[in-house]
Automatic annotation (TrEMBL):
Keywords: DNA-binding. GO terms for molecular function: DNA binding. InterPro entries: Homeodomain-like_sf, HTH_TetR. Residues 60-79 bind DNA. It comes from the Bacteria. PROSITE patterns: HTH_TETR_2. This is TetR family transcriptional regulator. SUPFAM superfamilies: Homeodomain-like. Residues 37-97 form the HTH tetR-type domain.
Length: 239
C-alpha cells in the first residue's frame, strides 16, 4: 500500500500521539492496575517476553516472579491468575488495534481506502508500532500463538457478559460499518470481519509453525493481497 507525502506526515504525527496512548482495559480483568507501579510494568513486559519464549502452558507466576526478582504473591496482587493476565494482554492488543484504525483512517472519505487499511492492520498488526506502555509488535507475536487460549475456555460466556471482549467486539463493529459504507445491502458484515480477524491471525501462525498449510511466509505482502481479494470480492458479489 502506497502512502502519499501528506499521509506520511500525518502518519508521523499520529504515531507520536499513539506512542503515549494507553488502552483502558476492563477493571474486572485485573486486581491492581499494572501501570500504577514499576513492578506492574515489569509484570507486563516480562510476561510477554516469557510467554513468547515458554508458551502459555509453561509460563507460571513463579517463573515470572523469579525473573523479575519479587515474590510470587506480589504478582498475584495484580492478576488473579495467568488466564486473567492473558485476557488483559489480549484486550490491550485489540484496543490498540482499534486506536490504530481510528487514527489511521481519520478524515478519510473513501470507504474502500479505509477498508484496505483495516485489512492491513488485521493481517500485519498495528501500523503505529511505537508505544511507551507495551511493545505492540511483541504483543502481536505473542497473540499470534496464544490469543485463542484467552477465549477458548469454559468461562467465555460469563466473561463475554462482563465485557472482557469489548475491544475485540467494537473493532469488528467498526470495520463492519466500513463494509456497509461500500455495500449497504451486504448481509453479513460482522461474519466477514470476524472471519478475517481470526483467519488472519491463524495464517500468521501457520506461516511460522505449519508452513505446509499456507503459501505465504511470515510478513509476506501477498497475504494482504489474498485477504483484500477475499473481502472485496465477497462484498461486491452481493448486489
Amino acid at each position: 500500500m502506497k502512502f502519499y507525502r501528506s499521509e506520511c506526515v500525518y502518519h508521523s504525527q499520529m504515531e507520536s500521539i499513539l506512542q503515549k496512548s494507553r488502552v483502558d482495559v476492563n477493571e474486572d480483568i485485573f486486581l491492581k492496575d499494572p501501570f500504577s507501579s514499576d513492578l506492574g510494568r515489569g509484570i507486563i513486559t516480562n510476561s510477554i517476553e516469557m510467554m513468547i519464549e515458554l508458551g502459555f502452558e509453561n509460563f507460571t507466576f513463579k517463573k515470572l516472579s523469579t525473573k523479575i526478582g519479587c515474590t510470587e504473591s506480589a504478582v498475584y496482587r495484580y492478576f488473579e491468575n495467568k488466564h486473567k493476565l492473558l485476557l488483559y494482554l489480549t484486550s490491550w492488543y485489540w484496543g490498540y488495534v482499534q486506536q490504530n484504525l481510528i487514527f489511521g483512517t481519520a478524515n478519510m472519505a473513501d470507504p474502500r481506502r479505509k477498508l484496505e487499511i483495516a485489512i492491513r492492520i488485521l493481517v500485519h498488526g498495528p501500523i503505529f508500532t511505537k508505544n511507551d506502555f507495551i511493545d505492540p509488535l511483541a504483543l502481536r507475536r505473542l497473540l499470534t500463538d496464544e490469543a485463542t487460549k484467552a477465549i477458548m475456555t469454559k468461562e467465555v460466556d460469563e466473561e463475554y457478559q462482563k465485557g472482557f471482549f469489548n475491544h475485540y467486539h467494537k473493532l469488528g463493529e467498526r470495520i463492519a460499518e466500513i463494509i456497509l459504507e461500500i455495500n449497504p445491502r451486504f448481509q453479513f458484515p460482522k461474519t466477514l470481519v470476524s472471519t478475517v480477524m481470526e483467519s488472519s491471525m491463524m495464517q500468521s501462525y501457520y506461516s511460522r509453525h505449519l508452513p505446509g498449510l499456507t503459501e505465504h511466509q511470515p510478513g509476506d505482502e501477498k497475504r494482504i493481497d489474498f485477504f483484500n481479494q477475499l473481502v472485496f470480492k465477497t462484498i461486491e458479489n452481493e448486489n
